[in-house]
Amino acid sequence: MHNIREFLADAWHLAKPYFTRSEERRIAWLLLVAVVAMRLVLVAMEVVLSFWNNAFFNALQDKDWQSFIDLLLFYKRTASGGILPGFCGVAVAYILIAVYRIYLTQGLQIRWRRWMTREFVGAWLAHRSYYRISLLAPAAGEAASGIENPDQRIAEDLRDFIGDSIAGSRGILSLGIDLLSNVVSLFSFITILWTLSGPMTLFGLSIPGYMVWVALIYAVLGTVATHFVGRPLAALNFRKQKVEADFRFALVRLRENTEGVALQGGEAEESRNLLMRFEALAANWWALMRRYKFLTALTAGYAQVASVFPIVVAAPRYFAGQIPLGALTQTAGAFGQVQGAMSWFVDTYAALAAWRATIERLATFHRAIEAARAAEGEGMRPGPETTDFELRDATLALPDGRALLEGTTLTLRPGESVVVTGRSGSGKSTLFRALAGIWPFGRGELRRPVGGALFLPQRPYLPLGTLRHALAYPAAPGAFPEAELREVLAAVGLGALAGRLEVEEDWSHRLSGGEQQRLAIARALLVRPEWLFLDEATASLDPQGEADLYQLLRQRLPRTAIISIAHRPAVAQWHARHLVFERPAEGPGRLTEAGPA
Fold it and tell me: Cα(2)–Cα(469) distance, rounded to whole angstroms?
């Protein structure tokens, strides 16, 4: 029961904001009310058709031609003075309402999904939650960490949570409206069934409305059996989404690193890794198949028995002459509606199990984002703005708690040039991350100047889109004049690309590593920051190309402070100050001044 309460609480927590605080809440409520009203109208029409069915089959039994035609094409007055509409009119109205109910449902779905996508993407990117989450690894054996495959959770789990009536997936809209319409159907048809079924004597006791009690017992037995058979499906569906995403991610990783794999002849290892991930997917699929086999056998048998069961139960009264053929068929139909409404849990168990897994993935992801946001104050605390970059009494650590630096103070002054060297893995890049204010593990004070700073990593990020977009990033594509873009491309040695500014390609694969680094330096020339941090940002270039770019930076950005991480000794000649990051095999390291570079 606790798990069910938690599941419902998570579903409500995810669904509530759109209808209570979104800018679309009014039209959302309007669409929801319209969809629900149309569904209830369809239930009312099913009630009308139940009485129409009674009169129609009685007309057949009595060979009443006029009533037969009236019930088909026009209308017929009943003995009580009421009016039964003709089937054709009811059918046309039913089709129109059914069509527009689906159309409006789809409109509500895409509006809701668009809003939730904006919310999740915004929360994921805000306060650098995406970065902190990416640094954390799930604990061993932890299935619902909330931090793996965020792309799938935003793209697919949000879709499945709301539902997609075009693709046939069942989400909160379809399940919720189905449940409501089944409740209305239950109360609409239970009175009809109670009246039609009459009493039954059992062991000397007269049981009024016995068909209602039979339907209730039948539905309860089916529900209990379905829950017993289908209980493992929620966990299996959760794992299914995870292993599917892991397999797809491995394929994407291979696509993004084709050259590295080809150069090292890693095809056999990649094949082994991909097939290993697929085997995990297949094993879970087989477990789902076995469980669905049992569940389908139960629900299919349940449905088949339900199709004839009410006629068998009501047949004695028909053969005894107590009810006509129309009443028999109406009884069977009403029994089917009541039993179907009571068996909603049976009919939707598989969809509920898959939906529960979706909610758990979204809820854990949302909690991971909130935890990352709550931890925003951890790490280096921001100090007052100064003219320098300063770390005061700084301690930097890895995500697992191991210290990289302890009690370190560092001051970088405007306009100076500093090179930071040290063994690979000592923590130089983490020092830059701390200076950028994005590293969440550690303590101390970070004082940053008012002027803008630009950090260029060893592997530049090139967004999808045109070359103009990649060059201007993170500014908008139109932030710089085309002539200026062409000029900086030529200055960094990429003049051959000047005519391709409007070409859309995956530039991270189209350009070599050295060309990507030249493009990043071109960004620095466009932005003209007061502080430029280069984390081996020229390491993919040949020594002469590297020297040319540093000389270009000194010429174009004479007042910019340039702080570089480098391994090549030749880089030191372009800097006046030299810091060494020394770190032993065990324990924290330290920053030492090595004199003039």
Answer: 50
